Amino acid sequence: MSNASLHQKCASPLRTLAPADELEGPASPKARFWDRIAVQYAADPIADMAGYEFTLRQVEDLLTADQDVLEIGCGTGTTALRLAPFTRRLLATDVSARMIAIAREKLAAQPVPQLSFALADAEEPVAAPGEFDALLAFNLLHLVTDLDRALQQAVLALRPGGMLISKTACVAEMNPLIRYLAVPVMQALGKAPRVLCFDADALQVAMARQGLNIVSVERHGTRGKDFRVFIVARKPT
To answer: What kind of fold does domain 3-234 have according to CATH?
Structure first.
């Protein structure tokens, strides 16, 4: 993720894209923020590539070729392109039309039959109830407006026994100077969205409130303290 993934709510490709169908009509404030930075986001390198690759390997081991998978908050589709070949079908969604437009350009250049992209808000119904075997949420849950609502929608989309596989920035675990000084300044300059401030324990409690059973909790970072927590949770059968 770029620096934009680190923003919080504590104290409070790279060419011009043709308009996509989804760009018609008003967008929410959070969608407008991500639309505005989509091209920069797509160009930013992954900060901890070794940690990212380790996460991908862990997720690949959890996915099977007979699973229907939903990714929410897919950004410009880099992770979806990597993981879709391990599934029967992967629908990757994002609230930003420009993010989705870039993702579709990547898919056109690198076709993956199992993969499709769609515009959708993770806090609204994304799929029919019980449509998916697994749901992916990477670097997203701290960026939603209402964590409980987003998790509720995720659980509804899962079949009984389905997995929520997530990696989340726990802003409450970050250096206080970043949380209380750097981030608010970036927000005031319009370079950061508002995000939620919680730690890994609070995130697990929120998942449990929605009836999810925690399967595993890991940290995959390879550079200093890792404030991103990788959690696998399962919907009861």
So the answer is: Rossmann fold (3.40.50)
